[in-house]
């Protein structure tokens, strides 16, 4: 192989410059060696590691560290190169001279890069990879590499003036520079405004020829699995990598035991080769619930040309030549379409994979840490495991964050989790003039080339809420005729997707309508965001909508108790104490939490009860929404809840809190996303109907039993019917009057069963119901193989002495890292539920019976009526 790679992650330090820099930091920066830096990393996390700041996630430290965003940071390292590695010994053969490039995969954000005192580049984009020729600057012995970062806050302010003001939803003009939007804070996010080398940096050296950009994808062409590779070949030489390639090169493309080759015919410094390989017997890649996510190893190999046949051959065929360069990808064969009809032709919206309509049960994904460099593969695997538990089959990577890592997409490929990646524009108008336009094109090219091989990626989306925002958020007057981003969403991005990743469907925005002149957040067609319920109304009003596809909706709730008390140390801790306010970023968030609670549950005065009430209400609100959207099938084909994860400890819409702990909402998602689910919904003409949703490949049939039951367990009315729901289908039954007509709304409920599926429907809100102490019996025993709780595995059985509504184990209060496999279970008198707990290490069985651990809706109501 002619290409050598050397990571440059060692020996970094940095200094801080600016009037706001604290004296302790200024002194540390002047000490020998300055402040040690970790690469990949950030100034904030380096300051934290050096003991110069406290954890920004705790209490009010965010405010105290605002100086970081207005500070310039200068990073330095020294690395050595020996004479042989420089490779400058062939003046008569430039193709043999060594080419050297510094490759920065991520610089956050505005910086000048220099080597040995020579400026190499001035950069302004966190989302790009920079490849810098250093052949003329690299020298034998020590080489000093410097990255001087400019204050992102000051850079954004100046860029906003230079470009002309564009509306945005933040206290900083994040839309004026190409930094992660939520890095300046969001309505769930901390304002870090930091700087740093946030992705790897390396030195690459080679001679002769090498592979440049490589695009590989598995597709289905006229029913035949087909692998496609589009390969750039680059030559080295004196002209910064633009030397002649010369004759006698070929590219070999290997997939699933077969290979095809093509000659590199151009004599220019960079040539492009396209190869296709049909593999009729290859198995397709399928998303979760539809089949196996089959992946195939592929490789693109640059060789000196051997005997060429131009025909596919077996990989084991011998080659006489040594590979010059090699790029490997794991691919899956699949087709994908995102169909959105105009309203006048029906308005249908549908995601199809391999020609099959997919019911989307999704969640939105944000950066899993405010400092994304801290998110590794193991952490991503943990989060995706929780997503699988919640029945999620699609994750939408939101446009105010980052283009996610290959680890994220690779894990989704393996697990069959579909992915949707926004281009990184969110909740703002964006200038279409230079220098911003070129930055958008460059970062989009990088992202499409890097991510396009992943079979899980089935949607590239132009923006988050910007087209809708221009229509409904009062942008016209402040824009005053300025560009706002339409050229990106309707011209640049679709053209780039068509050029670089035509196998990935494109949508112009979320929400969007296929008719550009129509309202862009309409329920009649396209995708829709539903936020008026959380902001202004109440969650039962989700049933006022009949959307075709909902790509955002949600309800707030606090983090788990363990995460809350780890991050907020107020004494006393109350919903309105100072630290709680810092960790609530939504406008009037606590007011909305209260307004959304009191119609359903009393507002508690006790902090632990407040925490449980808000957590429960969040779960029930979202469960209500998803069950309604699914009950509309096939009219509504998918929903993507806001949001799966958090980036720090905060009251938010997430189902996993900032520490990765399961909130009750995650159990609600598991219930509402069940492949076979029953739900009871009001009919438009009055009465109630049962809807059976069957998102499996086999028909679902059996005896449907509907009972109206008193809270004491007595059956007041009972009806049965032979029921069947087709594979990938839904069926509906209107409940007979005897079952659907309540005698005492405060003391009765409906229980509907079909096989193992059960639905409970209450005729009154919990606060109006005759709920009493459920007299729970809790029995905890070590799980098999976990004698004495060793390993933290427990089986907890909860038996109800009286009706128990939404039984949930808050097991993080037993052990901070414990999690449980269920929650929000309603039990009739005498019924039991069995829960599997993991991670509860070193606890006693009696801890599970603590009243703060096993909670019900009854706790909030009993004795208050």
UniProtKB/TrEMBL annotation:
It is an enzyme of class 3 (hydrolase). It catalyses: Hydrolysis of terminal, non-reducing beta-D-mannose residues in beta-D-mannosides. It comes from the Bacteria. Pfam families: Glyco_hydro_2_N2. The keyword Hydrolase applies. InterPro entries: Beta-gal/glucu_dom_sf, Beta-mannosidase-like_N2, Beta-mannosidase_GH2, Galactose-bd-like_sf, GH, Ig-like_fold. Its EC number is 3.2.1.25. GO terms for molecular function: hydrolase activity. Keywords: Glycosidase, Hydrolase. Residues 12-199 form the Beta-mannosidase-like galactose-binding domain. PANTHER family: BETA-MANNOSIDASE (PTHR43730). This is beta-mannosidase.
């Amino acid at each position: 192989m002619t290409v050598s790679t050397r990571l440059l992650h060692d020996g970094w330090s940095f200094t801080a410059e600016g009037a706001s820099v604290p004296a302790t930091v200024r002194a540390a920066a002047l000490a020998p060696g300055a402040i040690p830096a970790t690469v990949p990393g950030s100034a904030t996390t380096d300051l934290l590691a050096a003991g110069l700041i406290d954890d920004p996630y705790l209490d009010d430290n965010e405010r105290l560290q605002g100086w970081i965003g207005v500070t310039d940071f200068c990073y330095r390292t020294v690395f050595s190169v020996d004479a042989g590695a420089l490779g400058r010994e062939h003046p008569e053969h430039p193709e043999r001279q060594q080419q050297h490039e510094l490759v920065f995969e991520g610089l956050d954000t505005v910086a000048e890069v220099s080597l040995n005192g020579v400026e190499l580049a001035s950069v302004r984009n966190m989302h790009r990879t920079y490849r810098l020729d250093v052949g003329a600057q690299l020298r034998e012995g020590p080489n000093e590499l410097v990255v001087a970062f400019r204050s992102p806050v000051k850079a954004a302010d100046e860029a906003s003036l230079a470009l002309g003001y564009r509306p945005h939803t933040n206290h900083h003009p994040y839309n004026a520079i190409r930094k992660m939007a939520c890095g300046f804070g969001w309505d769930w996010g901390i304002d870090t405004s930091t700087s740093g080398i946030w992705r790897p940096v390396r030195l690459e050296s080679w001679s002769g020829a090498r592979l440049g950009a490589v695009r590989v994808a598995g597709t289905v062409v006229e029913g035949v699995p087909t692998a496609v590779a589009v390969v750039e070949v680059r030559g080295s030489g004196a002209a910064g990598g633009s030397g002649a390639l010369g004759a006698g090169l070929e590219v070999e493309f290997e997939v699933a035991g077969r290979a095809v080759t093509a000659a590199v015919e151009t004599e220019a410094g960079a040539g492009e080769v396209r190869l296709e390989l049909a593999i009729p017997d290859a198995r397709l890649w399928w998303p979760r619930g539809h089949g196996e996510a089959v992946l195939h190893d592929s490789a693109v190999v640059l060789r000196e040309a051997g005997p060429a046949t131009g025909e596919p051959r077996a990989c084991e065929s011998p080659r006489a030549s040594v590979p010059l360069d090699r790029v490997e990808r794991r691919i899956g064969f699949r087709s994908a379409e995102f169909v959105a009809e105009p309203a006048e032709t029906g308005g249908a919206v549908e995601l199809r994979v391999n020609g099959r309509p997919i019911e989307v049960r999704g969640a939105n994904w944000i950066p899993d840490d405010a400092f994304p460099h801290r998110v590794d593969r193991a952490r991503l695997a943990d989060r995706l495991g929780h997503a699988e538990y919640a029945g999620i089959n699609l994750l939408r990577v939101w446009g105010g964050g980052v283009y996610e890592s290959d680890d994220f997409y690779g894990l989704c490929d393996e697990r069959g989790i579909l992915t949707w990646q926004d281009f990184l524009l969110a909740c703002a108008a964006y200038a279409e003039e230079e220098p911003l336009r070129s930055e958008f094109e460059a970062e989009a090219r990088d992202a499409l080339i890097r991510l396009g091989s992943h079979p899980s990626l089935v949607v590239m989306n132009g923006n988050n809420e910007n087209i809708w925002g221009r229509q409904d958020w009062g942008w016209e007057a402040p824009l005053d005729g300025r560009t706002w981003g339409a050229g990106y969403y309707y011209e640049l991005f679709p053209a780039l997707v068509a050029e670089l990743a035509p196998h990935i469907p494109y949508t112009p925005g979320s929400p969007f309508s296929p008719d550009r002149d129509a309202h862009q957040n309409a329920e009649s067609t396209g995708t829709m965001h539903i936020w008026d319920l959380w902001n202004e109304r109440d969650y039962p009003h989700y049933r006022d909508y009949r959307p075709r596809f909902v790509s955002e909706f949600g309800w707030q709730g606090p983090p788990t108790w363990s995460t809350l008390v780890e991050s907020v140390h107020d004494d006393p801790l109350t919903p309105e104490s100072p630290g709680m306010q810092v960790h609530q970023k939504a406008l009037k968030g606590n007011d909305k939490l209260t307004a959304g609670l009191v119609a359903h549950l009393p507002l508690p005065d006790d902090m632990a009860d407040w925490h449980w009430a808000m957590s429960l209400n969040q779960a029930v609100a979202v469960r209500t929404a998803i069950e309604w959207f699914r009950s509309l099938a096939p009219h509504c084909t998918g929903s993507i809840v806001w949001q799966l994860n958090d980036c720090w400890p905060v009251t938010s819409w997430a189902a996993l809190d900032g520490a990765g702990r399961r909130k009750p909402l995650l159990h609600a998602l598991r219930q509402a996303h069940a492949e076979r689910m029953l739900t009871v919904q009001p009919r438009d003409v009055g009465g109630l109907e049962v809807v059976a949703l069957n998102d499996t490949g086999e028909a679902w049939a059996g005896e449907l039993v509907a009972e109206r039951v008193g809270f004491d367990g007595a059956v007041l009315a009972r009806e049965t019917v032979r029921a069947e729901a087709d594979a990938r289908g839904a069926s509906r039954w209107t409940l007979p009057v005897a079952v659907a007509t309540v005698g005492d709304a405060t003391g009765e409920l409906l229980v509907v069963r079909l096989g193992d599926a059960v639905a409970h429907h209450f005729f009154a809100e919990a606060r109006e119901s005759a709920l009493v102490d459920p007299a729970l019996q809790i029995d905890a025993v070590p799980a098999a193989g976990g004698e004495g709780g060793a390993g933290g595995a427990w089986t907890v059985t909860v038996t109800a002495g009286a009706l128990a509504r939404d039984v949930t184990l808050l097991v993080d209060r037993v052990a901070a890292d414990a999690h449980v496999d269920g929650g929000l279970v309603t039990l009739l008198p005498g019924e039991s539920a069995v829960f599997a707990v993991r991670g509860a290490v070193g606890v006693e069985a009696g801890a599970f019976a603590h009243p703060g651990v096993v909670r019900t809706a009854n706790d909030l109501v009993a004795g208050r009526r």
